[in-house]
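Section 3.1: Structural characterization of target chains.
Under the original work plan, the team committed to producing a structural model for every single-chain target entering the pipeline before any wet-lab resources were allocated. The record below documents one such target. The sequence was received from the expression subgroup and is listed exactly as submitted; it comprises 81 residues.
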Amino acid sequence: MYWAVQLPQNIIAESTLSFIGVGIQAPEPSLGNIVFDAQSSGLYQVQPLYLITPIVLLIVIVVGFNTVSSGLRNALDPHRR
């Protein structure tokens, strides 16, 4: 069950590192790269969805993994019955 807790943290760490420029480099797709490109080009001022969409997607991914891990813990933990 450790993977279910660690995976959202790794996704956030990768996105953060890509946003500040030390993670995955620009030609490769990453949520951090997408947010950085939208923010650095100023494109979000004209089309805010270019900035909002990857941020909302990151939130949905992290909350989804946390919900799945909580459900699996409730279903599979013998001490909670």
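Helices lie at 2-20, 31-41, 49-76.
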